[in-house]
């Protein structure tokens, strides 16, 4: 699976224009290999529009980029509605099934997207990936209210993106308070991470 992660910096006066332009992307729903798209505004920074698009594989994503993407951007002129954009193409390494078995089901029921953008210290990739499998994923998949998630790597060395979908904010808050401190200690997070950027995105319909 390929995930395209997009963060746009949108001035307050252009939010409505950005939302209107975003509607044009609904036309890609029938693209071969397209699994779905979710997004909303960063809860802690309302100027950030956050979008995640999911593709079955690299071939489907490349076909979209080569044949469809530019036509949509030319039509909706969305580039005029934001001041800055950050795009990351991520390759899924593991899925994290929770109450739902895949992105399609999770996107239909979840209300919150949690994203952890992780930059590692040199030489820490092997340990970081291992503790995802042995510590974090087992804990998250058994947590009430966690719908589905995926652990991904993107093009910069030592860079990973962890996305998880939640039934509601209260479910994630319980997990954060009751489990995360213990899990961080068990996973020896501080030994791996150079930097961590977290985002909470209430999902729009």
What does this structure look like?
The protein is an alpha+beta fold. It has a single domain, classed as Alpha-Beta Plaits, CATH 3.30.70. 36% of the residues lie in helices and 36% in strands. The protein has seven helices and eight strands. It has an eight-stranded antiparallel β-sheet with strand order 2-3-1-4-6-7-5-8. A hairpin with a 6-residue loop joins strand 2 and strand 3. The longest helix is centred in the first third of the chain and has 19 residues. The protein is globular and about 50 Å long.
What tags apply to this protein structure?
alpha+beta; 8-stranded antiparallel beta sheet; Alpha-Beta Plaits; 205 residues; 36% strand; 7 helices
Radius of gyration: 17 Å
This entry's quaternary arrangement is single chain
Strand order of the largest sheet: 2-3-1-4-6-7-5-8
CATH fold-level assignment: Alpha-Beta Plaits
**What is the percent of helical residues?**
25-40%
The CATH class label is Alpha Beta
Distance between the termini: 23 Å
Which of globular, elongated, flat, extended, rod-shaped describes the shape?
globular
Task: Provide the structure class.
Answer: alpha+beta
